[in-house]
Structure prediction request, 107 residues.
Amino acid sequence: MQPGKTLVLGSITLTQEKVTMDPPKETKHPAMLVTYLLLPLVYAVVGFVLWPGSLYPPEVKTMVITAIVSGVLGTIVGFWMGTSLGSSRKTDAMNAALNNASQGESK
Prediction:
């Protein structure tokens, strides 16, 4: 790639100096759509089991609370940490590719 040239691949812009990427809007992100679709199910199950006067024993209520808390925390941490780590690796790989391409053209 020659200095000053820009290569645009969808939402990714490559230039000699830097790599930029426009993130999708949060409301249109597929992960948000799945969240919006599944969250009411979680609320319904928790409400059904934990509602005052429900016939479930305390052990079942404890299992539901533990599963919800660990599932939610694990999912949130896994999604955001995985996204950040993968994005960082991709940026490093793209920068290395740009540097290799620019060194190959200068020879």
The beta strands are 6-9, 12-15, 19-21. The chain has a mean pLDDT of 75. The longest strand covers residues 6-9.
